[in-house]
Amino acid sequence: MFGGFSNSVRGASHEASGLVCQDHSAYEVHEHYAIAVIADGHGSKKYFRSHLGSEFAVKAALETVQRFYTDHEKFESSFPEHHKLILKNIEKQMIVNWNARVRQHLESNPVSRDEMKKFTTEEFKKIQPESYYGTTLVVAVAGRDFTFGVQIGDGSLVALFDDGEPVMPMNYDESAPANMTASMCNSNAASMFNSFYVPNKKLLAIFTSSDGLFTSFSNEDDFLEYHMIVTSQLSNLDTFENSIRKNMEKRSHFGTEDDISLACVFDIERVKNSTEMLRKKVEEHRASAADRKKKRLAALRNDIAVAD
Asked: What is the pTM of this model?
């Protein structure tokens, strides 16, 4: 049985400038699978409806995966052998679903004069309508016998399997040409996705997050350890979830100042049975982090001494 949570918090810089939160996140738990999704609307002025684009992306992802799981037995039996083809189809369907939502919204809500006043006439003519809603998307799906995910644009996906070590299973390589943001709004968006598939490994928890979370840490090791700490507390989610949100708000206000989203789904029984193992892992990682910090300080002192 799966559990989950999702949170999106408004960035401190957005609060100061009066911008709405451009992130959106969600999770769903079903009988045969669970899904965690985040989307991060782009910040540049031409993406002036990106807060809606991120919402549409999350809804498109949830609906698409649910459609593929309609006949769960057929999906689960065919996915292992044909996962590359099926993942491509899932990505394409997410784009199609998102574009349909964008078109429907634009038809019902034409661009207003207030939205247009930030541009010259020539500037506005050059913007493709889909770009108004530009957003990234990160999707993680926990199934019965396999785990998979897809991603377009920045953001992170972290998984913990039964060994308790946090890993980033996505082989991320920027698929966009130079000076182009990988985005749901691009005409070739379906070719810009990255994906992963992990069969026959017992999943503890899987997380998706916007880049505002990653950039609030000084290094990747600390970022990964954060997910281990959160996983170690998931058996107490009813009392711990509020602490997660407060920590995200703190990270935004005193670190990145960007919007932050975090969504998670986890195996309730496996997490409960792994609590002691995870606690020991957290202690080991903290000791390693302290040792790394000590070595960095020693190297810095040595550099300063040599310079003198």
From this structure: 0.91
Beta bridge partners of 262: 7, 209
Spatial CA neighbour of 44 closest among 192, 189, 254, 185 = 185
CATH number of 2-272: 3.60.40.10
182 phi and psi, to 5 degrees?
A: -70, 120
pLDDT, residue 173, reads 55
Buried residues in 207-226 as b, exposed as e (16+ CB within 10 A): bbbbbbbbbbbeeeeebbbb
For the chain, which residues make up each domain, given as ranges? 2-272
Structure tokens at 58: 């999350």
Q: CA-to-CA distance for 250 and 9, rounded, in angstroms?
A: 10
Residues 6+ apart with CB under 8 A from 143: 32, 33, 76, 79
Q: Which residue has the tokens 């949830």?
A: 62
User: Which residue numbers in the chain have pLDDT < 70?
Assistant: 171-180, 290, 292-293, 295-308
CA 121 and chain centroid, separation:
35
Give the CA distances from residue 236 to residues 231, 233, 239, 244, in Å, rounded to whole numbers and listed in that order: 10, 6, 6, 12
Query: Strand 194-199 relative to strand 156-161: parallel, antiparallel, unpaired?
Result: unpaired
Q: For 191-236, what is each residue's pLDDT tens digit?
A: 999 999 999 999 999 999 999 999 999 889 999 999 999 999 999 8
Distance, in Å, from the CA atom of 234 to the CA atom of 232, rounded to the nearest integer, reads: 6
pLDDT of residue 252: 87
Q: Tell me: the pLDDT tens digits for 132-175?
A: 999 999 999 999 899 999 999 999 999 999 999 999 998 655 44
* Burial category of 166 from C-beta neighbours within 10 Å (exposed 0-12, middle 13-18, buried 19 and up): buried
pLDDT of residue 56: 98
Helix, strand and coil in the chain, % to nearest 5 = 50, 20, 25
